[in-house]
Specification:
By secondary structure, this protein is an all-beta fold. The chain contains no helices and twelve strands. The chain has strands at about 5, 15, 20, 30, 35-40, 45-50, 55-65, 70-75, 80-90, 90-100, 105-115, 115-125. The chain has a four-stranded antiparallel beta sheet, with no helix packed on it. The chain has a four-stranded antiparallel beta sheet with strand order 9-8-11-12, with no helix packed on it. A hairpin with a 5-residue loop joins strand 8 and strand 9 (about 80-90). The chain is globular and about 45 Å long.
């Protein structure tokens, strides 16, 4: 699945995640360790995952303290929005994927919005 959820009650601080993936033939692979900093005073945290280029997909982790409708946008370094996603999220940490046209190697800005809160982070596509 393209989504993973982990509920943490009253999170605060630095969290590390690594996914264990088992294929149909039993082969086991592990994802790279990803970290997510979360400050419970701002309501949600956002962490971009380094992504191979030209796949048309950008992956990121989101930690939410409040269930609701969250909006995410991906901008190139010229400030042009190249992808957007709106999703209903519950509590906890989710791994999400945003789909767009080919995303070339470079640095992009990923912005998350929930009600009156906005956060952003850089994402490296290689």
């Amino acid at each position: 699945p393209a989504e993973y959820r982990d509920v943490l009650n009253q999170p605060n601080g630095q969290f590390a995640y690594r996914l264990k993936m088992t294929s149909i033939n039993g082969q086991v692979n592990y994802s790279a360790i990803q970290s997510l900093s979360f400050n419970s005073t701002n309501g949600f945290g956002l962490k971009a995952i380094t992504t191979p280029g030209n796949t048309g997909r950008v992956s990121f982790l989101v930690h939410t303290e409040t269930a609701g409708n969250y909006n995410f946008s991906l901008f190139n370094m010229n400030g042009n929005k190249i992808a957007a996603k709106s999703v209903q999220l519950g509590l906890g940490t989710q791994s999400l994927e945003m789909t767009s046209g080919p995303v070339h190697s470079g640095i992009y800005i990923l912005m998350g919005e929930y009600e009156n809160q906005k956060i952003s982070t850089k994402i490296l596509v290689f």
